[in-house]
Write a structure and sequence with these properties.
The complex is a heterodimer of chains A (853) and B (377). With 853 residues, chain A is α+β, with helices and mostly antiparallel strands. Chain A contains 29 helices and 21 strands. Chain A has four domains: 207 residues, no CATH class; 141 residues, no CATH class; 245 residues, no CATH class; 170 residues, no CATH class. Helix content of chain A is 62%, strand content 14%. In chain A, strands 12, 13, 14, 15, 16, 17, 18, 19, 20 and 21 form a ten-stranded mixed β-sheet that branches. A nine-stranded mixed β-sheet of chain A has the order 6-7-5-8-4-3-10-1-11, with helices on both faces. Chain A starts with 7 loop residues before the first helix and ends with a helix. Chain B is mostly beta strands and 377 residues long. Chain B has a single domain, classed as AttH-like domain (AttH-like fold, Beta Barrel), CATH 2.40.370.10. Chain B is built from one helix and 23 strands. In chain B, the strands form two sheets. In chain B, strands 1, 2, 3, 4, 5, 6, 7, 8, 9, 10, 11, 12 and 13 form a 13-stranded antiparallel β-sheet that branches. In chain B, strand 1 and strand 2 form a beta hairpin. The longest helix of chain B is centred in the N-terminal third of the chain and has 6 residues. The chains are: A alpha+beta (853), B mainly beta (377). At the A-B interface, helix 3, helix 4 and helix 7 of A face strand 4 of B.
Chain lengths: 853, 377
């Protein structure tokens, strides 16, 4: 009869082993903890951001199946009355919505939703749980100008009570409003959705946002496609019926790449963590080979030995996983803020900020950590179980095997590299494939590391001997002699550091590309725009009086205007940038164009459009001769594409066209921003200040000199990559723990050997030098090997990942800094990791050290 | 007829009852809107048509109330009720001058019910709209009152087209006025209680020849018959102790039409302010004070839906006119469970007038049986 695999005595033994070497155990736990924490934090932030978006979208879209939209300025309100009076047999609800900020409510962007309470019922459920609304409250909601309903929890947070005044900032205008009612939804989801909303009667919303006569959309619940077709057929031109999911789906899709990137980075931290576990377990196994031999001699089966080692890993994984999940929760809160900020900056406004903890994320993270640990321990466990009892007692056996293994690993590494390269070369736009290929390349490089380390150490011995003497030869040889362990530590550190190089190079290239691009496109001296509730909201129009003022301002040589709006298309909402800049053709950098810049601009003057590179990639547009369909005021129009231009302002993509063309197709003469070129000799700063003073009473506009706009843009850029930096740092942290753990185990194992060295006359100082030399060499090897790996990684990130994620072509900007930095980090981390064991060694007396085994 | 009157002054209703979950949390709690600032019905005022066909926003509450009994050529009987209510949310003096076309100080809602005797079915539903942006409203000339696609529209002098399409049925009728507007109460001033202002202005068009289509569950029928219109406006509440009312609009085969109501008090008695009007075939109207008629309940019906017990057959006597009538509901279940629960149904009449047998059809409204209307509003 076979005993159970995890028999209690063996599990107890596993526990005792872990307790016996608390340092190693703690470090293993720490490694897993960090890895899991990063994965959980990122997953949490991603899930939360995604769910916040769903909630935000759902709280607005509600149960609508379709949405009726007009042009960029919405649709005529009469359309709704006509539909209702014509007896549309389906639920329909008009909607006016705008992003606003309210200083009394913390100044964060909130969505002002203008609704018709009489048609809302089938659509949005945030009011359903309300219970009762006194008629008097409804009367107040309908009849009082500025009456707003908001979540009771939101009001409480800012100490507001019924009747309190609110200031609505929208499109640079300030409007008075007041708290007319507090909503207390019974369920959490509604409460969260509601916290980002201000509800107003549709009349109030029109008045607050200055959109008299217009609706943003009409929501519909249609039973089937036939009903939708029938309705679409009888719509007046200028109105478009869209499936509701198409809109929110398209928007969510845009952030998918961003979130996938974060997940991949977080997984990298876990991969480094896995290296660490593998390393630690291998040590633990190697150190106990005699024990296993004895156990095997005593009749313990292979399966039981295997179970013993895996059991240890299981304990470590459970502890590390659990603690990691807890740490991830804390870390996730910080990450959520950053992720949400980025999404707000780049994509759309997420008004929901508080999201329930997705328990699945926690479970996933915990299990991932545990699974990775057990998996990492499987090979060492197999190793321990498969050593014949007699040979297990033979200490020399392992290293000779390891020496052979290094060659096999290198061969495997070459295979992985090739496989990774192959996957990357596949003509696909899949981000998952891209990351799989990247992991292949990274792991391939990692597998090559032991071989490369051996070569480097031999080189070091040859070079170091003459310079440093005996220790200079001894240290590298020691590294090679225990390559089974040092090799993995070096590989882990190499991976972490190479990621740092790769990401730094990519971000540097990106930043450089953006700077060059800004230089090219920001030709004006002064830029004027209207503050939106967030950076991704840029369609607030300039007051016509301001437009006039800017045109005629003394010292202004040329005033160029931009209309930036979102219109609908068969591909979802599309950002339009219509401008009247006569030099625009020259100021763009073209990715591909139908002719010279002048010809392109001529085509644009004649009604063609320009498409930004990310949009072209997203829609899979051909490089030449493509067309783009947009829903105009008089129905769908197919625009010829005159060229594709580089644009790093939006990963979502932009369509650029002439202002004349825009106004031909859309009845909208509003303008969003202005670029002023001053006459030579005018003082930019002085004109800026004068304009700020003059325009302030008319509308709150942002007036920035060229330099300030450039700086602001780069600030957003840096903010976007803040989380990348943080993740990369964490991965390095995990690697550091790995090296520390490896050194600790290594030196612990070598205590007897060092004891002998001490006995034959090695001084304490020399022992310090030897230890630090060893670890320093390992760090240097990792740092050196990380350079080519990091460079390859940077190439992949710039040319594959980024392009697939965001559609941007970046110019690789090579700089030595990331390499130097990475090398320094590797050596420093290794030296630091050697410090603790070296101190322990130095304190022991010789006989104690020799007796250790 | 139909003093849903006070009910409305203090209305408790469910928005969009047909489409739960309701918006704005739906159940508007029974609570009075302030009546200050609205005009009150405090005495006789001259009526003038077509002006008075239209809305009277200076009063808080108003409705246009159509009921009718219709038959197909082969005798399938239908009853219908179509009412558009208006409710002032704010007196004109307090209304802000607002630029949005959606800015509303008027709330409109409508009840639409169909009784299908042949199909043994009763359908009812309720809709709400703001009295703004053209979504709901009323106008005097040409006369029109509408709530979205539910509408009554004048097509020629004295002729209107009534159209309503609901979830389970639809109505498209042409109504031709045969008697003209008849002023109820005293020259259109209908007092409901002892307090000044607890009264309404009220006229009826008691004999509207009706023809058109009725649609029930996708099946369409050509129908003809008689409809009755009430139009009433006021700013008032029920007086203390008044718990509900029984309202009768009766169209007799000899050309006589009769409106009667009894205001029931909490002690079981009938309020002395109850009154009626007898309209002769030639359109001559006679005021009927409370002591000129007796209404005896012959039977009751317990609603299986709400549990309310309603009168379900009546004996009505006007001794001075030698008129004696027996009323039977066309079908028992004609209970509307909307913002408020009441019974409003088609009734079949038999009886005698000056010894001559006669028949007829009518509508009866019974309120305050599910819950007392007093305190409810």
């Amino acid at each position: 009869m076979n005993p159970p695999l995890f028999s209690p005595p063996l599990l107890r033994l596993a526990g005792r082993v872990l307790r016996h070497s608390p340092w190693q155990s703690a470090l293993m736990v720490l490694g897993i903890l960090l890895g899991v924490a990063v994965v959980v934090a990122v997953d949490l932030a991603n899930q939360s951001a995604s769910r916040a978006f769903d909630l935000s979208a759902e709280s607005v879209a509600g149960k609508a199946t379709h949405t009726l939209v007009g042009g960029p300025t919405g649709l005529d309100e009469a359309a709704y009355t006509e539909l209702r009076r014509a007896g549309l047999p389906y639920p329909a609800a008009p909607l006016v919505s705008a992003y606003v900020t309210v200083p009394e409510l913390g100044g964060l962007p909130l969505q002002l939703l203008g609704i018709d309470p009489f048609s809302e019922a089938p659509f949005r459920n945030y009011l359903a749980a309300e219970g009762e609304l006194p008629l008097a409250d409804l009367a107040r909601f309908l009849t009082q100008p500025g009456a707003l309903l908001l979540a009771e929890s939101l009001a409480q947070r800012y100490g507001l009570v019924l009747g309190d005044p609110l200031t609505i900032l929208v499109n640079g205008q300030s409007q008075p409003a007041f708290v007319a009612g507090l909503l207390t939804p019974s369920d959490d989801a509604s409460r969260r959705a509601l916290e980002g909303l201000l509800l107003a009667d549709i009349a109030t919303a029109q008045e607050l946002t200055g959109t008299l006569g217009r609706l943003n959309q009409i929501d519909l619940i249609l039973p089937d496609a036939a009903a939708a077709d029938a309705l679409a057929a009888r719509l007046p031109t200028g109105l478009t019926l869209l499936p509701a999911a198409a809109r929110s789906g398209a928007v969510e899709q845009m952030t998918a790449a961003f979130r996938t990137n974060l997940t991949a980075l977080s997984l990298l931290a876990l991969v480094v963590g896995v290296f660490l576990i593998y390393n630690s377990m291998t040590f633990s196994v190697v150190r106990r080979r005699p024990l296993f031999g004895t156990l095997r001699c005593l009749g313990v089966t292979r399966a039981e030995v295997f179970a013993l080692v895996v059991g240890e890993a299981f304990l470590v994984g459970t502890l590390g996983g659990t603690l990691g999940v807890l740490a991830g929760l804390v870390l996730g809160q910080a990450a959520l803020g950053v992720v949400t900020q980025t999404i707000n900056d780049l994509f759309f406004v997420v008004t929901v900020r508080d999201v329930a903890v997705p328990w699945a994320s926690l479970l996933k993270g915990g299990l991932l950590g545990m699974g990775a640990t057990v998996l990492a321990a499987a090979f060492p466990a197999w190793e321990a179980a498969n050593v014949p009892p007699r040979q297990a007692l033979n200490r020399a056996g392992l290293e000779s095997r390891a020496a052979r293994l290094v060659n096999w690993a290198a061969l495997g590494g070459v295979g992985m590299l090739l496989l990774g390269a192959l996957v990357l070369a596949l003509p696909s736009r899949s981000l998952v494939l891209a990351f799989s290929g990247t992991f292949g390349v990274v792991i391939g490089c990692a597998l090559l590391t032991p071989l490369a380390t051996r070569a480097l150490m031999r080189l070091a011995a040859t070079l170091g001997g003459p310079v440093i003497g005996v220790l200079g030869r001894l240290a590298p040889r020691e590294v090679v002699n225990s390559l089974s362990r040092t090799g993995i530590a070096v590989a882990a550190l190499m991976v972490a550091v190479s990621v740092s190089i790769g990401v730094n190079l990519m971000v540097g290239s990106f930043r450089y590309t953006v700077e060059v691009w800004l230089e090219q496109i920001l030709q004006g001296d002064i830029y004027v725009s209207v503050p939106g509730a967030s950076l991704s909201q840029t369609s607030a129009p300039l007051d016509p009086e301001i437009v006039q003022t800017l045109r005629t301002w003394p010292g202004v040589e040329q005033a160029v205007f931009l209309r930036s709006v979102e219109v609908d298309s068969p591909y979802g909402p599309i950002q339009l940038a219509a401008n009247d800049n006569p030099q625009d053709g020259d100021e763009q950098i073209y990715y591909s164009a139908s002719g010279t810049p002048t010809e392109v601009w001529q085509a644009v003057q004649n009604g063609a459009v320009l498409v930004s590179e990310p949009l072209a990639r997203r829609l899979g547009l051909p490089e030449q001769g493509g067309t783009l369909t947009l829903y105009t005021d008089h129905g769908p129009v197919e625009f010829p594409i005159a060229g594709i231009y580089y644009d790093y302002g939006s990963s979502v993509g932009v369509v650029s066209l002439g202002l004349e063309t825009y106004r031909q197709h859309w009845a909208d003469d509003a303008l969003t921003a202005a670029a002023l070129t001053l006459q030579p000799g005018e003082d930019v700063e002085a004109v800026t200040r004068a304009l700020q003073t003059a325009l302030a009473p008319q509308q709150a506009v942002i007036i920035r000199p060229n330099q300030a706009l450039r700086a602001d843009t780069l600030t957003i850029f840096d903010r976007t990559f803040a989380i990348t930096g943080a993740l990369q740092l964490l991965a390095t942290g995990v690697a550091f723990v790995g090296v520390l753990s490896a050194m600790l185990s290594l030196l612990l194992e070598k205590q007897r050997q060092l004891g002998i060295l001490r006995a034959v006359g090695l001084s304490v100082r020399q022992m310090w030098v030897l230890t630090l030399l060893e670890t320093g060499l390992m760090g240097a090897a990792a740092g050196l090997l990380a350079m080519p790996t990091g460079f390859v990684l940077a190439l992949i990130l710039v040319y594959v990942i980024n392009r697939r994620s965001f559609g941007w072509t970046l110019q690789l900007q090579f700089s030595a800094e990331p390499f130097v930095q990475a090398f320094a980090i590797a050596v420093l981390a290794a030296l630091l990791a050697g410090l603790i064991p070296a101190r322990r060694m130095a304190r022991r007396n010789i006989s104690e050290g020799m007796r250790f085994d | 007829m139909k003093p849903l009157l006070s009910l409305l002054t203090l209305l408790a209703f469910t928005l969009a009852a047909c489409a739960p979950p309701a918006p704005l949390a739906a159940q508007l709690r029974s609570e009075a809107l302030p009546v200050e600032g609205f005009a009150r019905a405090e005495g006789i005022q001259p009526f003038e048509f077509p002006r008075d066909f239209g809305p009277h926003p200076e009063y808080q509450t108003e409705w246009w109330y159509y009921t009718g009994n219709l038959d197909t050529a082969d005798g399938r009987h239908f009853g219908y009720q179509f009412t558009i209510f208006r409710r002032g949310l704010l007196p004109a003096s307090q209304t802000a001058d607002r630029p949005s076309a959606w800015a509303a100080d008027q709330l409109y809602f409508a009840h639409f019910a169909l009784t299908d005797i042949g199909g043994d079915a009763f359908y009812f539903e309720e809709r709400f709209e703001r009295g703004a942006a053209g979504l709901a409203g009323a106008q005097a000339a040409p006369y029109s009152v509408w709530l979205a696609d539910w509408q009554v529209e004048e097509t020629a002098p004295g002729v209107v087209r009534l159209q309503a399409r609901g979830q389970s049925g639809a109505l498209d009728l042409t109504l031709t006025d045969r008697k003209g507007p008849i002023l109820q109460g005293q020259q259109g001033y209908s007092q409901k209680g002892p307090e000044p202002g607890n009264a309404s202005y009220y006229y009826s068009q008691p004999r509207l020849e009706s023809a058109g289509q009725i649609e029930v569950n996708g099946e369409s029928f050509e129908v003809s018959g008689l409809s009755w219109k009430d139009h009433e406006f006021s700013t008032s509440a029920l007086s203390p102790g008044q718990i509900g009312w029984d309202w009768f609009s009766l169209q007799l085969s000899d050309g006589t039409d009769l409106m009667l109501y009894t205001m029931r008090r909490d002690d079981g008695s009938i309020d002395a302010f109850s009154h009626g009007t007898l309209i002769h075939p030639d359109g001559r109207a006679e005021y009927l004070p409370f002591d000129q008629y007796t209404i005896t309940v012959l039977d009751t019906w317990t609603s299986p839906h709400s549990g309310a017990v309603y009168p379900a057959a009546w004996q009505i006597d006007l001794p001075a006119y030698n008129l004696s009538l027996t009323l039977q509901p066309w079908q028992a279940d004609q209970e509307l469970r909307l913002s408020f629960i009441y019974w409003e149904g088609a009734v079949k009449i038999s009886g005698s007038h000056n010894g001559q047998p006669l028949t007829g059809n009518g509508y009866v409204e019974l309120t305050g049986y599910y819950a007392s209307m007093e305190g409810e509003f």
